[in-house]
Structures are given as structure tokens and as C-alpha cells.
Amino acid sequence: MRIGMLTGGGDCPGLNAVIRAVVRKGEADYGHELVGYRHGWRGLIEGESMPLPLAVTRGLLPRGGTILGTSRTNPFKSDDGPARVKATMTRDGIDAVIAIGGDDTLGVAHRMAGEGLHFVGVPKTIDNDLSATDFTFGFHTAVQIATDAIDRLQTTAESHDRVMVVEVMGRHAGWIATYAGLAGGADLILVPEKPFDIEETCAAIKHRHERGANFSIVVVAEGATPVEGTMELQTGDLDEFGHVRLGGIGNRLQREIELRTGYEARMTQLGHLLRGGSPSAYDRVIATRFGIEAIDAVHEQDFDVMVALRGTDVIRVPLEAGVAQSKTVDQRLFDTAAVFFG
Ligand code: F6P
User: Fold this and answer.
1) Strand-pair category, 216-221 with 163-168
2) What is the enclosing helix (H) or strand (E) of 5?
3) What is the pLDDT of residues 317-333, one digit of tens each?
4) SS3 for 4?
5) Ligand 1, pocket-test mutation among 143, 171, 175, 237, most atoms within 8 A of CB
6) Using a 6 Å cutoff on CB, does residue 130 contact ligand 1?
7) Catalytic positions, please?
8) What is the 3-state secondary structure (H, E, C) of 12-74?
9) Cα 321 to Cα 126: distance, rounded to the nearest angstrom
């Protein structure tokens, strides 16, 4: 078979590990030929590809980013997008494509499957917001980076008697904030799942300082929102999938905290640092297992499925189910983190 591969949406640590695993088993064990499409769906629309022989994938396991490049291109944004994807696959003699991405990329893969094309999905995102899989790779690496940052901020916060606001990515789910906050011993975590009241937030900080603490660490997810009418919010531009660009709540929060409590506050926005660099050991392992399962699915001609982690098993689920629902933070997990608030 000739098998295409693409990485779409935001990059994340572990993408190259999936590519390496697919090529290794696909070429060495099954004798298939692998072709990479550049910059997500854009490569399939514009016919921009690169050969992916085994030699190209050597040394890829620890490498962050994606050697294929990525973009947030949506083929369904233009009338001829899906037809151009089809034309590229026909021209290149591609039997199936492994699409590695989040809900947007995988949603497109499922819609393209409806046009008679063969796709297998691999879920990735630092946000960990796909309901069909217990974890996506990239998430644990992002959590570790954020935790390391919180540890570092703690010593400078302590030295200056400051409130440190740490803003982390995660889109409309508070997974990174909750995990990193829990691991870093945050004194308050604000997540999109639970709109915050700025008065209560400041009261909790004051309460903590009145009990003898001289500093506080507040972790805020970029998608956290204040209870309606309690604090002004900014909004950003929309991407091709209609998602608003988030980021900036930490800044707003830092100013409000300073104003309302009188304590000195500083803000650190971790942003894309969470997506950069080498994947953790855990993410290398799931990424590799996902890649192997994906190439097995293609080899067995089991299409329109997505690989997923359930407990300790890697399984296949229908792509449609995989992208149907986003996964938000588990209340019991958040309650555990909340024991340490204030
Ligand atoms: O979905 C991954 C993610 O990193 C989100 O956490 C964040 O909101 C978004 O991508 C940022 O996207 P971009 O790289 O386009 O700024």
C-alpha cells in the first residue's frame, strides 16, 4: 500500500514519535510505502508531499514539533477543498491516510471518510480534551513543563511576598491547569469548567495571607472565565475552525488581584512553551503505541477509526465517536486539588 500521513492543528511533543512508529512498522514489517503531507490538510489540498522512508525517521523519538509541519487549514472552508484532497490522493496513488491531530483534524478526517476516502486517526493535543481517549500524548509533557515553572515561580514569589499568576494553555478545558496546579501545589486554580468570582478569588488569597502565608500561586487556564458581569474579558480572532484565540486572562487577573487585595502581583503566561521541546517518557510511549496501532488498522483495512487509550490498553474507536464530545475536567480530580486552596 501507499500510505499518507499528516499532522494538523497545534503541534505537540510526541508527533514525531508517532511518525517514526508508523514508518518503522509500515515499511519494515508490512512493506508499505509512506508519504508525508506537509502542513496538515494544506499539504493534501495543495499536493505538497515528502517521501517518508525509514532513514528519514531515525532519531525522531525525542524530537519535539513535527517534521511534516502543521497548520490549522480546514479543507471544508472552501468549496473545492475536499475535491482537491481527493485529487491529490488519486494522483499520488494513496490508499489511506493516517491523520494525527485534535478534534478539528480528526473531524475533517471523518467527514472525508464520508466521501469514500480511507482515514485512520491518531489523537494528539496538549489540551487532553478528547473524550474517547483517557489521555492524548503531549499532555503529560505540557503538565511537567508547567509544574517545573510553578516550582521556580514559588521561590521568587516567596522572596518578594508576591502573588504569582501563572496562565497555562488548554483551550476550553482545565486539564493542564488542574494537573499542573495539583502537582505544583497551587493555592488556587481557575478553570473554564467553573467560572470564577473575582471577589471570592481575592477573598481566598487574603484569607491565606491573613493566616500567615506571605505569597500565593494562582494557576489560571487560558479559557477560564469570570462569572458573568463580575469582570471584563477580551476576545481574540477566530481560526478556520471557528475557535477564538485565547490568552490574556492572566494579565487581567493579576491587575484585579493587585487592585482588590493590595498585594503585589505578577503574571507569567507559559503559552507555547508548553508545546515545545522533547516529549516526556510517558508521551513517547503512548505516541509510539498509537502509531503502531494506527498502522495496524490501515494494514487490516480498518478505516474511519481512531486509536485511543482506555486504561492501559490502546484500542480503536469509530472516528465519529472520537470527536463527538469534548472532555472536561473531572470534578473529583478538581476537588482533590481544591483541598489545598486558600
Ligand atoms: O490546542 C492546542 C493549543 O495549544 C491550545 O491550548 C491553545 O489555545 C492553542 O492551541 C493555541 O494555538 P496557536 O498555536 O494557533 O496559537
Assistant:
1) parallel
2) strand 2-7
3) 999 988 889 999 999 99
4) strand
5) 171
6) no
7) 127
8) CCCHHHHHHHHHHHHHHHCCCEEEEECCCHHHHHHCCEEECCHHHHCCCCCCCCCCCCCCCCC
9) 20
Task: Report DSSP letters for 265-316, one per residue.
Answer: EEEEE-GGGGG-SPPPHHHHHHHHHHHHHHHHHHHTT--SEEEEEETTEEEE
Residue 10 alpha carbon to ligand 1 centre in Å: 6
Tens of pLDDT, residues 169-224: 999 999 999 999 999 999 999 999 999 999 999 999 999 999 999 999 999 999 99
Q: Write the single-letter amino acid at 83.
A: A
Cβ contact 9:127 at 8 Å: no
How many Å lie between the centroid of ligand 1 and the Cα of residue 45? Answer: 23
Please name the amino acid found at residue 22. V
Say whether pLDDT at 234 is over 70: no
Q: Which atom of ligand 1 is nearest to the CA of 275?
A: 4
